[in-house]
Design a protein that fits this description.
395 residues; alpha/beta; Aspartate Aminotransferase, domain 2; Aspartate Aminotransferase, domain 1; 2 domains; 5-stranded mixed beta sheet; 13 helices; 15% strand; globular; binds pyridoxal-5'-phosphate
């Protein structure tokens, strides 16, 4: 072997006696075969075998298997983002002429995908009241192939009666997909309630550090896994092993992070709800939250994301008030170590009339800072949002 070849082909280091707790990060496009025969037969390796880096490496397979166990499913697929996970499910299930039902409280880019991508291709969507429960049966006709649920709903936190929706959908031959990002599989297990596709934005609690984007879909039915993988292969979708490795690391601490932010978020939500003139606090673990009874029945706890509906009178002071924050950062997304506040306006995203949510809603994501520092920051914020005369009265 000459030097130039030596620069290309490294010698093999022994792995004997080596063991570590971490999952190795395997980067690969090419997968090697031992001989021509096994290369020719690569198509028979099946979906759990290795054929090309795009379709999986031991790193991504480890993450898939870990999520599968947590979800109580049969297989998991990994895609580049939460949004692509939703898109892959819809593109897999829906054909021209079909209809998908999405809740009014769905993650807003999903409505965009339905309206701007699916609709021009002959796939329809209908928007339903997230509190529909079993009465969703009235909206399911012979064209309905998929009912999407997201519980709690984006920003306004309505908890859906998932088992009732699943029963109604399955009775009429429709699949159910669930965005389980808020709860993670530690707090809610959609597949145990009959859901067909349990989807996550791993970018949030699983990643846990606001530094990656990844999505997953877990199913109980191997045939559905095959259909998802077919769609992914056609679209050329795969993920980076480095991102998978970061999620494997994030999962190690997800349980303790979630237990902590769940406790702190509920404590802060209760303290905010008890203060005058703050506006309505929307947290699934508080009884005023729509669907609170379904949360109490189906969920094992709460995560760190909740919202406060601001009174209209606070609107003009919002910019100033937010600039006083020292600990909370202003930004969307959630599930990381840093606490975030995102001022949201849901009106533009909602199709159904009703609801008091005309004005700004502050979506609060609790992170891992000291809870009393967070509380002090929120007191500063909400004091700055109050009418000057109210402040004077309170003094
Ligand atoms: C963030 C989020 C998504 C999208 O995930 P990305 O990885 O950012 O594409 C989908 N659903 C919910 C509920 C989310 O919070």
């Amino acid at each position: 072997m000459r030097d130039q070849t030596r620069t290309v082909i490294p010698p093999e280091a022994s792995t004997e006696g080596f063991a570590s707790l971490s999952v190795p990060t395997y980067r690969a496009s090419t997968i090697l075969f031992s001989d021509a025969e096994s290369y020719a037969a690569r198509g028979q390796r099946g979906l759990d075998g290795y054929s090309y880096g795009l379709h999986g490496t031991p790193t991504s397979r480890t993450l898939e298997a870990q999520l599968t166990e947590l979800e109580g499913g049969a297989r998991t697929v990994l895609v580049p983002s939460g949004q692509s996970a939703i898109a892959v499910v819809m593109l897999t299930v829906l054909m021209p002429g079909d209809t998908v039902l999405i809740p009014d409280t769905v993650y807003p880019p999903v409505t965009g995908f339905c309206a701007n991508y699916l609709k021009p291709r002959g796939i329809n969507h209908r928007i339903y009241d997230p509190m529909a429960g079993g009465s969703i049966a009235d909206l399911i006709d012979e064209t309905t192939r998929l009912v999407w649920v997201e519980s709690p709903g984006s920003t306004t936190m309505e908890v859906q009666d998932v088992p009732a929706i699943v029963a109604a959908a399955h009775a009429k031959g429709a699949y159910v997909g669930c965005d389980n990002t808020w709860a993670t599989p530690l707090l809610f297990k959609p597949l145990a309630h009959g859901v067909d596709f349990s989807m996550h934005a791993l970018s949030k609690y699983a990643g846990g550090h606001s530094d990656l984007l990844l999505g997953s879909v877990t199913v109980s039915d191997l045939e559905l896994r095959k259909c998802l993988r077919d769609t992914m292969r056609m679209l050329g979708l795969g993920i980076s092993p480095d991102d998978a490795s970061l999620v494997l690391r994030g999962l190690q601490t997800m349980g303790v992070r979630l237990a902590h932010v769940g406790k702190v978020s509920l404590d802060i939500a209760k303290r905010l709800a008890a203060r005058p003139s703050i506006g309505e606090v929307l947290h699934p673990a508080l009884p005023n939250c729509l669907g609170h009874e379904f949360w109490a029945r189906d969920f094992a706890g709460c995560s760190g994301l909740f919202s406060v509906v601001l009174p209209a009178s606070a609107e003009t002071r919002l910019g100033d008030a937010l600039s006083k924050l020292k600990i909370f950062a202003v930004g969307s997304s959630f599930g990381g170590t840093r606490s975030l506040i995102a001022p949201m306006s849901v009106k533009a995203h909602r199709a159904l009339p009703e609801k008091p949510q005309e004005g700004t809603i502050l979506r609060i994501s609790i992170g891992l800072e000291d809870p009393e520092d967070l509380w002090a920051d929120l007191v500063t914020l909400f004091d700055a949002l109050r009418e000057p005369q109210e402040m004077a009265r309170a003094l």
